[in-house]
């Protein structure tokens, strides 16, 4: 499957369009397609369309456009495909997720911390760690993670869950405060042992 992704760099704009859905890449792909079509039609179909010098310029533009896009695409492809380090990150995330679902909090936290050492801007791992920290009773650390998460690019997709986790943290603080108050009331209401 990875080789098929790398083949997309042969058409300008296709990697960004196919792998990330970027609309600007659609314009790039259409522009290249139009230039190739004009050059092909003027060369083998409607030969009077372009003067010979303009025809050579069109083919030169096609080749230059393609080469620039090819070399630029090779540089971007590791980011678009998420090469080896991201694959390892994906494995770590799946491992952390599995440990979390089993209730193995310590192992899940270790995997998430390792993943965040490799990629501190991993939005999914940051959110999962904040959720884990809230769950194991570390509200200050969880709140700090959620605040950090709000500053990371791409966190918008999880805005509802970030808000939900913040509310759960606030609710946990209220419940804890009520429990402390109840315990204090019970302590003061009990008769002293003499």
Brief descriptors of the model:
Serine Threonine Protein Phosphatase 5, Tetratricopeptide repeat; 9 helices; 194 residues; elongated; mainly alpha; 0% strand
Write up what this structure looks like:
The protein is 80% helix and 0% strand. It is an all-alpha fold. The chain has 2 domains: 2-81, no CATH class; 84-174, Tetratricopeptide repeat domain (Serine Threonine Protein Phosphatase 5, Tetratricopeptide repeat, Alpha Horseshoe). The longest helix has 31 residues, at 159-189.
Please report the distance between the alpha carbons of the first and last residues.
78 Å
Q: What is the CATH fold-level name of the largest domain?
A: Serine Threonine Protein Phosphatase 5, Tetratricopeptide repeat
- Unreliable residue runs: 83-87
Write down the secondary-structure element order: HHHHHHHHH
Architecture (CATH level 2) name of the largest domain: Alpha Horseshoe
Radius of gyration: 28 Å
Using the coordinates above, name the CATH class of the largest domain: Mainly Alpha
**Backbone structural class:** mainly alpha
């Amino acid at each position: 499957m990875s080789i098929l992704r790398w083949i997309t760099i042969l058409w300008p704009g296709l990697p960004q369009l196919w792998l990330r859905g970027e609309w600007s890449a659609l314009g790039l792909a259409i522009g290249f397609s139009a230039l190739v079509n004009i050059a092909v039609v003027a060369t083998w179909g409607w030969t009077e369309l372009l003067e010979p010098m303009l025809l050579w310029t069109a083919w030169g533009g096609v080749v230059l456009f393609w080469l620039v896009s090819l070399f630029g695409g090779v540089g971007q492809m590791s980011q678009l495909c998420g090469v080896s380090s991201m694959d390892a990150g994906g494995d770590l995330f799946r491992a952390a997720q599995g440990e979390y679902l089993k209730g193995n909090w310590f192992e899940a936290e270790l995997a998430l911390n390792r993943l965040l050492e490799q990629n501190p801007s991993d939005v999914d791992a940051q959110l999962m760690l904040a959720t884990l920290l809230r769950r194991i009773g570390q509200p200050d650390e969880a709140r700090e993670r959620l605040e950090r998460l709000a500053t990371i690019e791409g966190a918008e997709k999880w805005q509802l869950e970030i808000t939900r986790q913040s509310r759960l943290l606030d609710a946990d603080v209220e419940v804890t405060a009520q429990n402390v108050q109840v315990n204090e009331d019970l302590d003061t209401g009990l008769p002293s042992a003499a």
